[in-house]
Amino acid sequence: MLSSFLGLMTFVPSAGSVSGRIKIPPLKKIEIIDTNNYFSGFSSDLYPENSADKAYLSNLRAYVLKRVRLDPQDDPGVILKALEWVSLQWKQDGMNEPRKGESALDILKDVHQRGARYRCVEYSLVLSEILRSLGYVSRKLSLRSVNVAYGPGGQGHVGTEVWSNHLQKWIFVDPQFSVYPTYKGRYLNYYEIYRLKKQGKFSKIRFNATPGYQKRDPKFNAQDYVRGYRQFLKQYFGYMATPITRSGKNYDLVLQLDGKREPLTFQGLPLGNSLFTRDPRDLYFKVNQTLINFQYRRDAGSYQKLLKEKGLVITGKTDAEKIAEVKKLEPLFADKPNFILSFLNNSPWHSYYEYRLSARGSWLKISGDSMNWNLKSGRSYLEVRSVNQMEIPGPGTFVDVLYQ
User: Fold this and answer.
1) How far apart (Å, rounded) are the C-alpha atoms in residues 195 and 197?
2) Which residues, 6+ apart, have CB-to-CB distance to 331 below 8 Å?
3) Which residues of 259-288 are buried (b: 16+ CB within 10 A; e: fewer)?
4) Bigger pLDDT: 17 or 234?
5) Which of 41, 119, 174, 380 has the most Cβ atoms closer than 10 angstroms to its Cβ?
6) How do residues 108-138 score in pLDDT, each as one tens digit?
7) 120-133 vs 104-114: helix axis angle to the nearest 10?
8) pTM for this entry
9) Which of 112, 124, 116 lies closest to 98, judged by CA?
10) Which tens digits make up the pLDDT trace of 242-280?
11) What are phi and psi of 12, to 5 degrees?
């Protein structure tokens, strides 16, 4: 077995008796000592609306920014500001549906020009599309009771989840009520709310009504409002669903919570195009991540080839002696950290990459999806991020490398 291993010795280290006739320098090693460069959910079909209609989003953005000041760089502040603004545009009407295919811009014009009122569905649609126009990945989130299949009216509600690049997580907001949840100061997504409920900590969650929403009514009582919202939300821990696109077709990806069966009806009406899962990771993947791939500037070759190039001969008689000789020669063959770095990302509207060479350094634009990185002795730091078509940067991926 060892003989066949030596015959294929591509990555085996260096040598012994021959080393007495040549000068061997100290071995310098290349080691990543810290990084967040890990593979994470690169399946683009799990993004809601993963192709941006730039002309439409530009028009929506211009329409909204004429009416409210939203700073796209203020994450997560821009999410809460947009949440509040949408919540204040109309009063809910649970029976009024827009015409089929109407966009957030159509709905807002209808509200502003004719005083129309809409459902929770439209609150979520409008907020999701506004956030998307500002460069944020957002999605409608359908919340359903355990009795959704044949229960009476009111078995479903719709909120919004949005990916925060700053917090590096999905967070839940409810634009019908202008509410966002936190627990011990930490923003929550809907599955985290469910998990806290299962742990008996639902009463510990803080449901925050935005300040501007509270001010619209001089008699607003925050304590009563939050108590009512908490009771309202308790109904909707059967299932949660979000739209996805797979193989060019639209579906609802449904995560089962307390609901144990896969419903095919919604209050008795057809509920098709549903894909069911019990794994929350199918919905809670990371977004706007960049992956750094290391490639050396030269081919690895093999120890047999490298020994021949240097005119070295292994003189050991046994396999153990040969391995010992090759091990001692390792510093002669150990490669230097001269890399070609290539980048992958799972940003749905990726435009270009940026890099910086210290954690507080300036960001520099990368031409294309690769760059050369030649390291000197000591520690070297590199951080790369994707910037999308709306100029919103994703979180940085870093590597901290030691060469000594």
Assistant:
1) 5
2) 14, 24, 25, 26, 27, 28
3) beeebeebbeeebeeeebeeebebbbbbbb
4) 234
5) 174
6) 999 999 999 999 999 999 999 999 999 999 9
7) 120
8) 0.85
9) 116
10) 998 877 788 999 999 999 999 999 999 999 889 999 999
11) -70, 140
pLDDT tens string 323-354: 888 888 888 888 889 999 999 998 888 999 99
pLDDT at position 50 is: 43
To the nearest 10°, the Cα dihedral for 180, 184, 188, 194? -110
Q: Please name which of 155, 151, 163, 147 lies closest in space to residue 120, comparing C-alpha atoms.
A: 155
338 contacts 25 by C-beta, under 8 angstroms: no
Assess contact for 373 and 347: CB atoms under 8 A. no
Instruction: Give per-residue pLDDT as tens, 72-81.
Output: 999 999 999 9
Residue position matching structure tokens 């070759």 = 301
Residue type, 209: A
Which H or E run includes 63?
Answer: helix 54-65
**Measured on CA atoms in the order 88, 94, 99, 102, is the torsion positive or negative?**
positive
Listed residue (55, 18, 61, 28) closest to 314, CA to CA: 18
Give the pLDDT score at 4: 36
Angstrom distance (rounded) from CA 283 to CA 274: 14
**Residue type for position 144:** R
| Strand runs labelled E in 174-280 | 179-183, 186-187, 206-209, 239-246, 249-256, 265-266, 269-270, 274-277
Helices 54-65 and 104-114: angle between axes, nearest 10 degrees: 30
Give backbone dihedrals phi and psi of 60, rounded to 5 degrees, phi first: -65, -45
Backbone phi, psi, residue 323, to 5°? -65, -40
Q: Kindly state the tokens that stand for 250.
A: 């639209």
Which residues is 219 bridged to in the sheet?
none
Instruction: Count how many residues are written for the chain.
Output: 404
Residue type, position 212, single letter: G
> Tokens 């910086």 map to which residue?
356
DSSP state of 98: P
Residue 353 tokens read as 């990459």
For residues 140-154, one letter each, b for 16 or more C-beta atoms within 10 angstroms of the residue's C-beta and e for the rest, the string is: bbbbbbbebbebeee
Once rounded to an integer, what is the mean pLDDT over residues 46-65? 78
Please say whether the beta carbons of 229 and 208 come within 8 A.
Answer: no
HSE-up of residue 163 (Cα within 13 Å, Cβ side): 24
Place of tokens 């030691």: 402
How is residue 247 written in tokens?
């193989």
